[in-house]
Every structure is written in C-alpha cells, then in structure tokens.
C-alpha cells in the first residue's frame, strides 16, 4: 500500500518563499510530486489540501550531502539506520541525503551499490550515494562509468583509515586520473593517514590512551597537508574535487589558493566544526567520547576562520557527517582511544543550528542559508534544478519554517536513535513546521507520516 495511496493536490497559501537568490510572497500548487504553479490568490478546491503558511518561511527541502547511516565499523554499526536516521532528518527539515557506498575489497562497485540501495529502501527521505573505490584495480575505469550511468555521479576517497578503506598516494592518483576523464566529482576525506597512524600508535605504546589523545593524534597540520597534497594531485590530473568536513584554519589557505588559480574545488564544513571546540576532550571518558570524530574538534580560532570561509564563499556547503554511536559502542575504546568508533549525529540539527547561529547572529543572510543547506549541494552534486530551488517544474520537496520555535537540544527531545548528542544543552530558534517530500506532507506539526517512502534520486553529469 505504501506510496500507492491517492494523493490530494496541496495548496500552500500566504507564505514567504525564500530561494538562494530571491525572496517573494506567493501561493504554491503541488501536484504529482511537482511544484506546478507559483502565483498569487490561488483558490483551494474541495479536493485540495490547504496549508496556511502565514508567518512561515518556505524554502526548498534541505539536502545533506554527507551522512553515514548504518555504517559498519570494527565493533558493530552506527546507531541510526536509514529508517531512524531519516526520521531525524525529517524533524530537521532535510528531504534528501547523500550517503556512501563502501565496497568490500574485491567487490565490484555496482554490486556494492545494489546492496546499499536495498539497505536504503526504508528511508523516508530521498537518497543518493557517493561511491568509494577502496583500492585500485584495472577494471575500475569501467566500473566508475557503470556507476555514473546508474545515477551516482560522485565518488569518495579516504586518505585516512589506510588499514581498511583508505588509499595510498599511487592509488589515489590513479583514481583521480580516472574520475577526471569521466567528468564526475571526487569527494575526499583529507587527513594524512600514515602520520596519524604513527601518532596514534606512539601515544598508545606510551600509555597515553585516554580520549584526549584522539585530537592530539590528528593535529590540524595532518588535515592541512593532506588538503595541500590532494589539491596538487587534482591540479595535475584535472580532477574536480569536493573536500569533505574541513575543520582547520590551516586548510583554508590551500583551498583558497587552489580556487584562486581556477581549480574546480569545493569545500564543506560541518556544524560541529563551527560551534564546538577541543575543550570537549578534557573531561571524563563518557563526556569526551561522543566528541571523538575525525577530523577532531579544533580551537575557537578555527571555528571563527570557518565562519569567515563561509562568508567569503571558500566553503559553500555544510554536511553533518551524521554518524552517531551509542555510549556502549563508544565504550569499546575505554582502555584505548584508538578503539572508540569515530563519529557523531547531527542530521536533525543542521538547519536549526545554522539558522540560530548564522542567520539570527547576522553572520549569513536567509538566502545564503538556503544556498548552503540545499541550493549548493543540489548544484554541486547534479540535482539542480529539480531540487534546491522553489520554482515551477521543480520537485515538491519543501520546508515550511517556523521562525519563532525555540528549543534546547537534548537526548530527551531528539529523534536520532542514540543515547548521546554532541549538541546537548544548545539553544536553537527556528524549526520545520511542515515538510513535504515528493509532493506529500510527511511532517506536519511534529507528526510524521510513515506511509510514504523516499526515493533513490538519479543524478546527472553537468
Ligand atoms: O568521525 C567520522 N567523521 N566518522 C565518519 C566517517 C568519516 O570519516 O567521515
Ligand atoms: Zn570522513
Ligand atoms: Zn563522513
């Protein structure tokens, strides 16, 4: 029965529409999953569902370009699967996620994509994937082309985690040459894997095993020098690059230089790198472990530098890197920080945090907010103009935002499937009142409609 129910047209009246490049008042008609009309004074018929958007702002459904649902790690899985994680996404105003396909060594990319699509079928929000080559092999060029034909036009490489999924420099270079030839985009986790491994092992060998050694084993230069290296490779190979979760002020210098030279390089940061800092690691294990994520939290001056990079458009997007782990999972590393699973949740909080600490603190305009949370991810990852904009003909993925709703983030009121939250105690103002996905009202004043599932969205090369 799911997805086959009769859907009434939706009419949204009296709202203010905010796109990345304009703000205007108009009514909206939604039918068959699309925005079919944007005009004033629409009269709702008896068969229409009417939503009054008075005092609300209306913007395109948010796209989170960096999430990990049901991520396998050495000791189990991250806490949210595609169902629970998509519920948290919905409560935060996110209507599309881009997760990852991480094949086993030797497994064809398309086999791994097929499996991951199956896992994602229970998602209530729309979804796509970045696909990871975790090793070089001669069939990879052909496999990459196959993946693009199947609608995934971005790939992901890890310069860290070399024991499992990370690539050494030779393989990274070959992957970059290959992706460059296809016109696809390569996303990269930039940290110097070997240097970090040495630091981690040295700390551990000398009995420095508490969580505070996590950030000390991944200092800012290990990110900045990885960024520098991968930008050099990108210049030589002509590979377009998207650097995920930029955390360090030092990295920004290299990104700016490359952008100035005309290299096609995009940078993403995450809410935790803007709002939290490394003082979180100095408390006891259960307080510090939730903040063990990679790259680690940095200093206040890094937070400030990242806000500046958003303002000057060095950074165009913000992903959450959503990857929560329960306290029990985090405790796998109670005797050695190297065994604490890396990651934290945030998918529910991306918009409310950026709205509260960006828009309401006059760091960014409301249009820039929309640009960051949806228009840029849509443009960069081949979803625009179907998504990322409210206009006639676009997909009806829409958020009606209550600008007045206040809250304090807590495990007591969050929706991610996890018993800790790195934003615990943080105040927010602004929240989604209604969320429409594929033309259906899925979140309405705190109630979720679970009868409709999200869709795999095919992306296209530009
Ligand atoms: O600590 C993190 N970020 N965990 C998720 C995997 C990754 O590196 O993005
Ligand atoms: Zn990463
Ligand atoms: Zn990640």
Describe this structure in words.
The structure is a single chain. This protein has 462 residues and is α/β, with parallel strands linked by helices. The protein folds into two domains: 1-58, Urease, subunit C, domain 1; 62-380, Metal-dependent hydrolases (TIM Barrel), CATH 3.20.20.140. The chain is built from 14 helices and 19 strands. It has helices at residues 82-92, 109-120, 140-149, 169-182, 193-205, 213-216, 220-237, 249-260, 271-275, 285-288, 300-311, 327-330, 350-359, 366-380, and strands at residues 10-18, 23-31, 34-39, 49-52, 56-60, 62-64, 72-73, 76-77, 94-101, 126-131, 154-158, 185-189, 241-243, 265-269, 317-318, 398-408, 427-437, 440-444, 447-448. The strands form four sheets. Strands 1, 2, 3, 4, 5, 16, 17, 18 and 19 form a nine-stranded mixed beta sheet that branches. The longest helix is centred in the middle third of the chain and has 18 residues, at 220-237. One zinc ion binds at residues 189, 244-245.
Which CATH class of the largest domain applies here? Alpha Beta
Inertia-based shape: globular
Number of strands: 19
Bound molecules: N-(aminocarbonyl)-beta-alanine, zinc ion
Counted by DSSP, the helix tally is 14
Number of domains: 2
In round numbers, the mean pLDDT is 97
Beta-strand proportion: 15-25%
| Percentage of residues assigned to helices | 25-40%
Q: State the distance separating the first and last CA atoms.
A: 36 Å
Briefly note the structural class of the backbone: alpha/beta
CA-based gyration radius: 21 Å
CATH homologous superfamily label of the largest domain:
Metal-dependent hydrolases
Low-confidence spans: none
> How is the CATH topology of the largest domain named?
TIM Barrel
The CATH architecture name of the largest domain reads Alpha-Beta Barrel
Biggest β-sheet strands, sense, barrel: 9 strands, mixed
